[in-house]
Amino acid sequence: MRNFNYLVNRARVINEANLYNAADLTDAVLKQIHGEPEVIQQWFKQKYIRWYQTPDGDSAKNLQDYTWKEGDKEWAKGPDKGLSIFKGLTSNEKEEIEDIVLYLKTLPEKEVPLKTYNDAITTARSPEHHAKSITSAKWGPRVRKYKEQMLKILTDNYIDHLSKVKEYFMNGPFMNYVLDEDPTFDTEHGLSKYWTDLLPLLADYIRYEQAANNAWEKGINDIRPRDLIQLMTAANNLETEYKIEKLEEGFDYVQIDPLFNYKPSAENEEEHRQFMTILSRKDYKFIRLISMQSYINEGERMNHCVKKNYVINPQDHTLISLWSGITATGDPRATMRFANAGKDIDHKTKKVDLKSLTKILECKGKGNVAPTDKPVQAAIRKFISLNGITIVQDGANIGLKEYDGVFYDPDSKAWHTVWDDKIRPKQLRIQQEIYAKIRSIN
Fold this sequence. Notes:
By secondary structure, the protein is of the alpha+beta class. The strands form 4 sheets. The protein has a 6-stranded mixed sheet with strand order 3-4-5-6-9-10, sandwiched between helices. The chain has 4 domains: 2-125, no CATH class; 140-235; 253-409, no CATH class; 412-442. The protein is built from 16 helices and 12 strands. It is 46% helix and 11% strand. Helix 2 packs antiparallel against helix 3. The N and C termini lie far apart (132 Å).
């Protein structure tokens, strides 16, 4: 009898492989594929669950080492058997199961049992499977449904003859954007009501823009889908919820040289040293904002008018932001608007003509008021002074001194010269005149 029990326990260990709670694994997988065809459920029982119980790929599975304790199964007791505990399917594992199901559904039923786990997972992980194309096992049915609906919308709104627009919506970034942003999109119903309401408005907006400018459609590939939606929303005075999104360097913004017009001299050497110390300690960066989304992020984070006043035509404005480091969505401390109305940048190459950055019209902190952080004020003062930039208003916001309509950094040689040569002599003359009047009265 002892030998028989030993053989039974050994068989259990072999069948359970390195997994103690195999029943929990089976329950989790079957729950994940509930409602799928019987042939696919059988495949997961015979191929996926069996693979999961083997040591193959354990480092990527959601497992932990098993230690026997009182009340556990007797067959697991004894010398270390190298058993593990299944802790539940991870989000990645659930996604891979969904991808395998999608792949198996593309096969004739008789071919499904012939596919090994390695066959299925290799296809499910392949770039072709994940690409949003008609030939993709994962996306193919949804892409076909989207194209069918999108063509009807373009045709019903009389813009299907615009070849670049049609390509943009049918095969370009817009299709990828919608399929990512519409979580309820499926092969039966297709687009959600949000998109079926929105897309005709977009088509109407494009038709209007094309009528006003016959070359408008030629630049559509340079407009990101979310920016196109914002443009249409603003043009139709629709209510919109501005959202902070990740920014892409070179598309949404570029970092500029903080000393682009600095001319070293003995007189400004100390000022330069102070400036570099501030930048180093605070990790400040001077950023040229470019895109609509960069303006939205700036306005949302700073709670000022950038997102409302300038977002519709960002190419017509020159905004420089002082960021604390480089982050995915920006970390602004102050916003400066320059006077050259966007003519400082080539929007194709994203190269900034720094020499044209000579006059600041506004300098705002959070809430459209003066920057309150002293290091921020100091950094902008040095930036203005060392690059020979003039500021029309808001100079007092950053601690500059004004004389005769011109703002000066109080630490600069230029201010000391104005003080010694103009302000102080004028004060002395006024004092002398007052003293003279007092003496004449006496």
